[in-house]
Amino acid sequence: MTAGSDAVTELLPMVFADPGEALARARALLDADASPLDASVAHQVIGIWQRDFGDLRLALHHLRRARAYAARADSADREADVLATLGVALVHAGRTREGLAAFERGAARGGGHTRARVLYRRAYVWWVLGHHREALEDVRRAVPVLRQADDVIWTARALTLRATVHLALGSVERAEADFTAAEALWDTTGQEHDKADAVESRGLAAFRSGDVPAALRLLDEAEERYARLGTPTFMLNIRRCEVLMAAGLAPEALAEADAATGRLEGIGGQSTRKAELLLAAARAARSAGDPHTAIARAALAVRLFAGQRRSWWEAHARLVLIEARYAAGRGSGRLVADAAAVAGTLASFGAPAAPEASLLAGRIALDLGWTADAERHLAVAARSRRSGPPLARVTGWAAQALRAQLAGSARGVLQASRRGLDVLDDHRMTLGASELRARATEQGAELAALAQRASLVSGGPRRLLVWSERWRATVLSTPPTRPPADPELLSGMTAFREIASRAEAARMEGRPVVALEREQRRLEREIRSRTLHMRGEAPGGEDRFDVRRLLEELGDEALMVELAVLDGRVQVLLCGRGRVRRVEAGLLAHAESEAEHVQAGLRRLAHPGAEARLPVVEAAGRRLEELLLGPAVAQLGGGPVVIVPPGRLHRVPWALLPSLRERALSVSPSAGSWLRARQTAPPPDGRHVLVRGPGLATGGAEVPELAGRYGCATVLEEGEARVPRVLEELDGAALAHIAAHGTFRADSPLFSSLRMADGPIVVHDFERLDRSPYRIILSCCDTARLASVGADELLGLVTALLPLGTAGVVACSAPVNDAAVVPLMLALHKGLDDGLSLAEALRDARATLPGDALHQATGWAFSAFGAA
């Protein structure tokens, strides 16, 4: 290679087109005893590679040598270009003063086109430092010169940077215009790394505009592009953490941020990126309810940002630190002052997070009884309620609701809460995945609680019922978006089933399963990732809950018992006989603890020889009744009862409670979902489907007898009980009975499964049905176990079925004895043959069981859900 040859000049743009090849050629050039000019280019290429993808100390070493060779070559433009690259590396190393000085020298040495490139890189550094106005000014001066020189690559970079700065200032429309213009330019180049960066930036823009599924899809696409190039993705990790937190996936965001920090430290990477990753981890830990981890990460981020002279970033880290300290119970006057100061700093930067800081200052002041200070800070925060991204508007409405509470206006609290939850409703409906919809409700938990308290003061039990329903089980209010007919998703599901089946067989044979489990987890991540990309339908169209309609449907005999929780105490709402009444019961925390004891007792009773535990479990049932129903027991009457518990009480075996044992008892996630189930008409053909999975202790002994009883029922067993065939037959059936091992996945509830001949059938599979069976009976362990997420949402098999056309489910929330299940199931079906509802048939079936502990526990473990 000779000085000034095309091959040498191509090396610099190649760093972001094919990084690995550029690095190899630069090293080869140095091995060939290059001229000073060529050696300067080669060392600069190695420096850029190490700066962005490797060890920052090595980067500084090579960039200083690049500058020395440029001086020896007596090329002012070459020296200016290297100084700009060195300035970026110094700032990323936390040596901000030296970095800015290098830019001053570079801008003075370079002329025309080269100086424009220096200005672009200084604009990038201003963005890193959080000096957005300075960044926009340097880009404004660089772009016309780059365009005039027909420098497509650097013009596209400058437009991408300007768009990113606009996003940081909350100007989404300007950002999208620049991203579009930059993308058109990138399409004319071979700059694959820059193209991946453009896709990543579009993901950030989608997120800022409120489109979480599109953001996740674009960030995943960018990650695939980076992976093909073999380059790290630290900025992408930071951005994905932000999107995951907005989607309610804070624990995943924390894990991603911590893992990326570990990788960055392992390669001696950029100090600036480390600080940003620590900030992302602090935010995630705070959202995940881990204030102590948040404090540790945020405090370190504050120190790093301060040392790097990055005031914009430091203010954001201080905000998270104050939030975490407040969450850890450290509210004080000093904290109010700190939050107010951070709010002022963020506002001076034009940062969209400023209202969050004002809201925080107002909350802490409220706790301290400083009403005048609270009102001042909340008024500032409330200004954001009219415009901006959905979560920023929710912040504003939360501030407005707190202001109304402070003023003693229950009406104002209800109005602000309604408006804020309406904003969240619209945002939630843009999410196609039921998991994201469920987790997004956490953002509205405070508004719902404020409204519940205000409604109890101003409107009594009926209004409290309305607000209890307003933010309960919202995922069940509309059917989930159907997964797309994505060939890769379908093949992934098939591969997942095969691997899971092989892993299960290996476990039974005592063979190693580590590699199979690793591949299963990889496929789960891929399936889940594609599912989260789904976009929801347009907002609107769901019915508002109507108390009058509920009371009409219940009539004079049935009673609905909805349990609301206010300030940690259970409020029992008795709905029926034309009115709504309220009584107060025990503490939710005590009830949760008692429910865990009951579950442990039922697990013991599922095995022979544990009869001595029966009185203990029954005593726990009596204590649970006192905590959950209290004085309401005397008002239950003698008719059917529908229990609507909060999500945190979903594992209570309600039939164990003495006052409910001999009743037609059903459970529903919300009053609204019970009403929808009541209005669901059975399919006209009355088709019955019986499914028997492998590995049951009894072999699913009830299925052959039921097949004889129903005559024309479709029976799927042994090799015929394969997932595609089972789904085909379940679609639109009037009654389905599935005897198959159930597995509940607390870590990933939508991968909870039923074991079929070819592997597990999971919740994601059921969401593909056009219409799930009208009635479905799941006769094995753990099929009714659910994960409580969001504000008051439940994820699992039962809740996946209810919005898809299922009006009633019988399922089990605890381990049960397979042999004891058989007579219960046969008696249950006999009741259905006699025209009873699932709740009535299950009540009568329990009464037919032997009185021993094993059978009694089996009967208590099953519940009827819905209204069929």
Percent range of helical residues: 55-70%
The largest sheet has its strands arranged as 3-2-1-4-5-16-15-12-8-6-7
What integer is the average pLDDT?
88
Number of helices: 39
Structural class: alpha/beta
Oligomer type? single chain
Overall strand count: 16
Low-pLDDT stretches: none
**Beta-strand residue percentage:** 5-15%
Q: How does the major sheet shape up? A: 11 strands, mixed
Distance between the termini: 81 Å
Rg (C-alpha, Å)? 31 Å
General shape: globular
Pfam families: CHAT (PF12770)
InterPro entries: CHAT_dom (IPR024983), TPR-like_helical_dom_sf (IPR011990), TPR_rpt (IPR019734)
Protein name: CHAT domain-containing protein
Domain CHAT: 619-861
Could you give the topology of this structure?
Elements: H1 6-9, H2 11-14, H3 19-31, H4 36-53, H5 56-72, H6 76-92, H7 96-109, H8 112-129, H9 132-148, H10 152-168, H11 172-186, H12 192-208, H13 212-229, H14 234-246, H15 250-266, H16 271-287, H17 291-307, H18 311-327, H19 333-349, H20 354-368, H21 371-382, H22 390-406, H23 410-429, H24 434-440, H25 445-458, H26 460-470, H27 487-509, H28 514-532, H29 547-554, E1 559-566, E2 569-576, E3 579-587, H30 588-605, H31 614-628, E4 641-644, E5 665-667, H32 671-678, E6 688-692, H33 702-710, E7 714-717, H34 723-730, E8 735-739, E9 742-743, E10 753-756, E11 759-762, H35 763-766, E12 775-778, E13 787-789, E14 793-795, H36 797-801, E15 808-812, H37 818-833, H38 838-848, H39 853-861, E16 862-866
Parallel strand pairs: 1-4, 4-5, 5-16, 6-7, 6-8, 8-12, 12-15
Antiparallel strand pairs: 1-2, 2-3, 9-10, 10-11, 13-14, 15-16
Protein name: CHAT domain-containing protein
Organism: Streptomyces tibetensis
InterPro entries: CHAT_dom, TPR-like_helical_dom_sf, TPR_rpt
